[in-house]
Design goal:
By secondary structure, the protein is an alpha+beta fold. The chain has seven helices and ten strands. Helix 4 packs across helix 5.
C-alpha cells in the first residue's frame, strides 16, 4: 500500500482510547478518472497540545542556534576577506575601500589625503636569524605601534610581508602628514624584545598627498612606493642587536 504523507484530522473512538491507530483506507487521486481509488495506509496519533507546543519551541530554539552559527560564520568569512590574518590590521581590499571613502569626503570638504608607504629596514635579517615566529612577533609589535600613532579616522594596513601603508584622511596640510611620519619613525625605532634579545629596526617611509601627487588610489600608491625606495636608499641602516636592557621594550 502507499504511505500517506501529511497530517489529516481524524475522529475515531479507538484513537481517543488508544492514542494511536493504523489502518487501511481508500483514497482518490487528484486528476484521476471518476471512481478510481487507491489503497493507502493511515497512521494516526493523538496529539497532546502541551507536548506539541514544547516540541515546537524546541525546534524554534534549535533553528535560532543554527541561524546564529550561520551568521557568525558569515561574519568570520567577511572579516577574513578584509583583515590581515596575522596582525588583525585592514588588508589591501579594505584599504582601497577606506581610501574611496576618504576621497569622497576630501572632494566634498576640500581636504587633503596622504598615503604613507612603510617598509621595515633589516626585517629579513631578523626573520632569518631568529625564525619566522620571531618575525611574526616583530610584525605584531610594529602593528600595535603604528596604530598608536594615528587617529581613529586614519587606517593602518598591512600591505604584505614587512610592508605597511598608512592612510591619513582629512589632513589640513602636508606638514601635518610630516608630523605623523616623524612620530612613526620614533615609535618604530624603539627596541623590541625577541627571544630574550633586544632588536632595533627602522622604517623607510614614502609619502604621497592628494591632490598634489595624484588624484587616484593607484597614483598615490605608486608615488608613495617610489618615495619609500628613495628613502631606503638614503638610510641603508642595518638592524642593531644587543642584550636586553632594563625596560624600554614593549
Amino acid at each position: 500500500m502507499e504511505q500517506l504523507d501529511g497530517a489529516y484530522p481524524v475522529e475515531s473512538p479507538a484513537l481517543r482510547e488508544q492514542g494511536h491507530i493504523i489502518g487501511a483506507i481508500a483514497q482518490r487521486r487528484l486528476n484521476a478518472p471518476p471512481g478510481t481509488v487507491a489503497p493507502a495506509t493511515l497512521d494516526a496519533a493523538q496529539v497532546d497540545p502541551e507536548q506539541a507546543l514544547a516540541n515546537a519551541q524546541t525546534r524554534i530554539e534549535r533553528l535560532e542556534r543554527e541561524i546564529a552559527q550561520l551568521r557568525r560564520a558569515v561574519a568570520d568569512e567577511r572579516r577574513h576577506a578584509y583583515v590581515d590574518a596575522l596582525t588583525g590590521l585592514p588588508n589591501r581590499r579594505l584599504l582601497m575601500d577606506r581610501f574611496d571613502q576618504a576621497l569622497a569626503r576630501g572632494v566634498r570638504q576640500h581636504t587633503k589625503i596622504a598615503l604613507l608607504f612603510l617598509d621595515l629596514d633589516g626585517f629579513k635579517c631578523i626573520n632569518d636569524a631568529l625564525g619566522h615566529a620571531s618575525g611574526d612577533q616583530l610584525l605584531l609589535q610594529v602593528a600595535r605601534r603604528l596604530k598608536a600613532c594615528i587617529r581613529a579616522a586614519d587606517t593602518v594596513c598591512r600591505f604584505g610581508g614587512d610592508e605597511f601603508v598608512v592612510l591619513l584622511a582629512q589632513i589640513e596640510s602636508q606638514e601635518r602628514a610630516q608630523l605623523v611620519v616623524r612620530k612613526i619613525r620614533t615609535a618604530v625605532a624603539k627596541p623590541y624584545l625577541l627571544q630574550e634579545q633586544v632588536v632595533r629596526v627602522t622604517t623607510s617611509i614614502g609619502m604621497a598627498v592628494y591632490p598634489t601627487d595624484g588624484k587616484s588610489y593607484a597614483e598615490l600608491l605608486e608615488r608613495s612606493d617610489i618615495a619609500m625606495y628613495f628613502d631606503k636608499a638614503r638610510a641603508c641602516i642595518a638592524p642593531a642587536w644587543s642584550h636586553p636592557p632594563a625596560g624600554g621594550t614593549d
